[in-house]
Amino acid sequence: MNFLKAHFKKILFFLTIFILIIMIGLSSIGRLGGADLGFFGNLISGFQKIVYKTGNTLTNSFYSVQEIVKMREENIMLTENVYKLREQVRILENIINKSEALQTEYEMKKNLSYDYVVGQVIAIDDSNWFSRFTIDKGENDGIKQNDIVIQAVKTDEGIVQIGLIGIVTQTSSEWSKVITLLDESCKVSFRNIENDESGILQGSIDGTVTGYFFNSKVFAEPGDSLVTSGIGEVYIPDIYIGDVKDVVKTTDASTLRIIVEPAVDFTKINRVYVLKK
């Protein structure tokens, strides 16, 4: 009894094999001799159908698994190709953008009547992003305090202008610090080229550039272009500042307040020009 329990699975396996051999043998005899096997024939036929269907199912399952594995490999390959193509597109876009920027700078330089130094931004003041930064040129390159910092910009009409960034506030032998229009300590006298009226603008802690006309009765509207007026000893005239974004009504009847959209995109500054006056 203990022997049967211990070897039950093996006995069942060999018994199954034995029955299969007998059935296959009887089936062969029936085919060769044309004998009618009756019950055994029907049993064998049914068993053969089960074996056939099971085989087909296993075969189909095997091929299905193969297809799934193949599709997965193809998907991995396609995903890798997409990443590679995206990287190539990014590189091409950078090349195109740099090429366009260099072309814009070239057009701007043709209109410059001042000597200049080209500087690269090497640090941004993290206490007030985009309002202050440091460039890799300094006193050894002829830069001094209050020198004007500019960048080539292209208007919506495709016209290249000298765009105002700000001024140099501090220098060393090899670097200079710059404040931009966005900084609250930066004040610039401007002129509206649409009506020749003047005013003063200033940055703010949140990066908004606000301006006031000296003449409260002047008419201004969004889209008006503003340039430096040249009033004072810092900024030379006719440097493109930006456009009027909005006209704000105030309780003070003696001034007209405007919100200014700078011509320069301060989030993309990396290469600047310093005018040596």
What does this structure look like?
By secondary structure, the chain is α+β, with helices and mostly antiparallel strands. It has a domain of 163 residues: Rod shape-determining protein MreC, domain 1 (Thrombin, subunit H). It is built from 3 helices and 12 strands; from the N terminus they run αααββββββββββββ. The strands form 2 sheets. A 6-stranded antiparallel barrel has the order 1-2-5-4-3-12. β7 and β8 form a beta hairpin. α2 packs across α3. The chain is elongated, with a radius of gyration of 42 Å. The N and C termini lie far apart (112 Å). 23% of the residues are buried. About 2% of the residues have low confidence.
Q: Write down the secondary-structure element order.
A: HHHEEEEEEEEEEEE
Give the proportion of residues in helices.
Answer: 25-40%
The CATH architecture assignment of the domain at 114-276 turns out to be: Beta Barrel
Distance between the termini: 112 Å
Number of strands: 12
The name CATH uses for the topology of the domain at 114-276 is Thrombin, subunit H
The average pLDDT is 79
Note poorly predicted spans.
30-35
**CA gyration radius, whole angstroms:** 42 Å
CATH superfamily of the domain at 114-276: Rod shape-determining protein MreC, domain 1
Number of helices: 3
Structural class label: alpha+beta
Largest sheet: 6 strands, antiparallel, barrel
Shape category: elongated
CATH class of the domain at 114-276: Mainly Beta
